[in-house]
Amino acid sequence: MLRSFLTVLGIVIGVAAVVTMVTLGNATSAAVQQSIANLGTNILHLHPGGGFRRGGGGARPPDFKPADVTAIEQQVAGVTGVAPQAQTSATVIRDGYNWSTTIFGMDDVYFEVQPWPLEQGRIFTRIEEQAGKAVCIIGGTVRSNLFPGIDPIGKRFRAGTVSCTVVGLLTSKGMAQYGDQDDMVIMPIKAVERRFLGTTDIKAMLIGVDAAYDTDQVKASLTDLLRERRRLEPGEDDDFLIVDPKQISETLAGATNLLTGIVTAVAAISLIVGGIGIMNIMLVSVTERTREIGIRLAIGAVAREVLLQFLVESIVLSCLGGLIGLVIAQAAVMAIAPVMKVDWVFSPGINLLAFAVSAVIGVVFGYFPARRAAALNPIDALRHE
Question: What are the residue boundaries of the structural domains of the chain, listed by start?
Answer without folding.
Answer: 2-35+249-383, 62-238
